[in-house]
């Protein structure tokens, strides 16, 4: 007997058009330096808010763990901030650090990469999605003498190379926010009076860009970040002058002492290159 199958009896599986449900962010961790602390986004009554708080609110996270502190370097994140971050078992972790390393005389790209890799590996082992930063050219924001500008630009490139290499090892679990491509990131309004930290608007721009990366990784963003400034403290001309006298000049003096040898080495290298004989290509 021959089994007859009519076309009506043939069932073709149909791929489900229902998208996978977005994962909620219950715990957010932010690790890093003064930008992660919130400097540049003051709130009435004192203190700082910053992108960490804005991001927490956008994601609807029940808990924000932010052990960051001013002046932190990549090694500080590894040795002083990572432990409380791991204990929180975050769903998402943002690592915002590295610029302070570029301003020190002991800058070490190899050490940066090793510390960053250790931090990312530990966070990923808990199941966290990690976001790293690719830094902008800060000499376009904070004007510097030419030798210092060139030295800092080279160091930022080296920093980005180190973190980029770490991210490339786990592209599905590590996102990278490129600050050089952040719309409006070089505009004056995006920066606080010190030109070192984002303003309220700058912090809002950071939080908004981070939510886009995190959403692309499959997480829910129930409350998108508004770029309308509200809730911060107004920065007046008096604040600007006070910062310049009390904070700006002392900071330049401290960094000049630490970064001075780098400037000298940069000048020497340029002189050597200029005096080197041009190879005969005939």
TrEMBL record:
<feature type="domain" description="SGNH hydrolase-type esterase">
    <location>
        <begin position="31"/>
        <end position="204"/>
    </location>
</feature>
<protein>
    <submittedName>
        <fullName>SGNH/GDSL hydrolase family protein</fullName>
        <ecNumber>3.1.-.-</ecNumber>
    </submittedName>
</protein>
<dbReference type="InterPro" id="IPR036514">
    <property type="entry name" value="SGNH_hydro_sf"/>
</dbReference>
<dbReference type="GO" id="GO:0016787">
    <property type="term" value="F:hydrolase activity"/>
</dbReference>
<dbReference type="InterPro" id="IPR051532">
    <property type="entry name" value="Ester_Hydrolysis_Enzymes"/>
</dbReference>
<keyword id="KW-0378">Hydrolase</keyword>
<dbReference type="Pfam" id="PF13472">
    <property type="entry name" value="Lipase_GDSL_2"/>
</dbReference>
<dbReference type="InterPro" id="IPR013830">
    <property type="entry name" value="SGNH_hydro"/>
</dbReference>
């Amino acid at each position: 007997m021959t089994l007859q199958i009519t076309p009506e009896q043939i069932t073709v599986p149909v791929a489900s058009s229902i998208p996978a449900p977005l994962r909620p962010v219950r715990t957010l961790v932010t690790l890093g330096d003064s930008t992660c602390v919130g400097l540049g986004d003051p709130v009435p009554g004192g203190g700082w808010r910053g992108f960490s708080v804005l991001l927490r609110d956008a994601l609807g996270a029940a808990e924000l763990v932010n052990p960051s502190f001013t002046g932190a370097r990549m090694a500080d994140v590894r040795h002083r901030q990572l432990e409380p971050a791991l204990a929180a078992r975050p769903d998402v972790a943002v690592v915002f650090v590295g610029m302070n390393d570029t301003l020190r005389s002991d800058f070490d790209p190899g050490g940066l990469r090793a510390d960053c890799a250790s931090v990312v590996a530990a966070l990923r082992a808990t199941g966290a999605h990690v976001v790293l930063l690719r830094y902008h050219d800060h000499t376009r924001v904070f004007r510097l003498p030419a030798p210092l500008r060139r030295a800092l630009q080279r160091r930022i490139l080296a920093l980005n190379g180190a973190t980029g290499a770490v991210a490339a090892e786990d592209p599905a679990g590590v996102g990278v926010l490129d600050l050089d491509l952040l719309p409006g990131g070089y505009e004056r309004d995006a920066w606080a009076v010190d030109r070192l930290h984002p303003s309220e608007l700058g912090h809002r721009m950071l939080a908004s860009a981070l939510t886009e990366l995190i959403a692309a990784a499959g997480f829910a963003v129930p409350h998108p970040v508004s770029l309308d400034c509200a809730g911060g403290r107004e920065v007046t001309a008096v604040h600007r002058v006070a910062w310049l006298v009390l904070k700006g000049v002392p900071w330049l003096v401290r960094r000049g002492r630490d970064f001075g040898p780098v400037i000298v080495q940069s000048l020497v290298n340029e002189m050597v290159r200029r005096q080197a004989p041009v190879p005969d290509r005939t």
